[in-house]
Amino acid sequence: MKRIDDSSKNKDDFVNTGNTVISSILNYFIKNALSKGVSVDYSIKIPEEISIEPFDISRILINVLQNSIEAIEKCSNDKYLDIKMKYDKNILYIMVKNTYNSTITKIDGNLLTTKKDKRNHGIGIQSIKNSVDKYDGTMEYIYDDRYFKTYIMLYLK
C-alpha cells in the first residue's frame, strides 16, 4: 500500500495540501508561472478537509491566478507571483500578489478586462465575486505602481 501511495505522488509538485483540487490548481499555476520565467513564492497552510465546494474554490483560484499570470506576462522584466493561503478559525484567507504594468481600467470602481474581446472576457472577476458572496466573504484589490494584490476572505463552516 505504501509503494502504491508513494508512486501516486507527483515528485514535481510544489504544494501538497492533501486537498487534491486545491493542490492541483496551485501546482498547475506555479509550474506555469515558473515556465514563463516568473519568480514565485508561496505559503499554503490549510487543512486537508475544508468545507468549501470544489467548484467554488476552483472558480476563485483559477480566475485569480489566471488574471495574475496574464498581468505578469505584460511586464517587460520584473515578473513576480506570491500566493498565500491560510485557514484559521473557519476562515480561509487567500492573498495573491503579482507584478503588473501599472495599467488599471475601472468604471464605477469595478475592474474591467484589458482584453480586446470584451464580449467574451471580463466575467472572471464577477465569477469570483459570486463564489466569495456565497461564503459571506470579502474580496479587495490593492495596487501601487508595481504590485497588484488580491485579498479574499471566506467564512467556512
Would you give an account of this structure?
With about 160 residues, this protein is α+β, with helices and mostly antiparallel strands. Helices cover about 35% and strands about 30% of the residues. The chain has four helices and seven strands; from the N terminus they run ααβαββββαββ. The protein has helices at about 1-10, 20-35, 55-75, 125-135, and strands at about 40-45, 80-90, 90-100, 105, 110, 140-145, 145-155. A five-stranded mixed sheet has the order 1-2-3-7-6, covered by helices on one side. Helix 2 runs parallel beside helix 3 (about 55-75) and helix 3 runs antiparallel to helix 4 (about 125-135). The termini are far apart.
Oligomer: single chain
Annotation, overall tally of beta strands: 7
Mean pLDDT: 85
* Beginning-to-end CA distance, first to last residue: 33 Å
The number of helices is 4
* Structural class by secondary-structure content: alpha+beta
Helix content: 25-40%
- Strand-residue proportion: 25-35%
Strand order of the largest sheet: 1-2-3-7-6
Q: Shape, please?
A: globular
Secondary-structure element order, as H and E?
HHEHEEEEHEE
What would you say about this model in short?
By secondary structure, the chain is α+β, with helices and mostly antiparallel strands. The protein has helices at residues 2-8, 20-35, 54-73, 124-134; strands at residues 39-45, 80-88, 91-99, 106-107, 110-111, 138-143, 147-155.
What is the fold's blueprint, element by element?
Layout: H1 2-8, H2 20-35, E1 39-45, H3 54-73, E2 80-88, E3 91-99, E4 106-107, E5 110-111, H4 124-134, E6 138-143, E7 147-155
Parallel strand pairs: 1-2
Antiparallel strand pairs: 2-3, 3-7, 4-5, 6-7
Helix pairs in contact: 2-3, 3-4
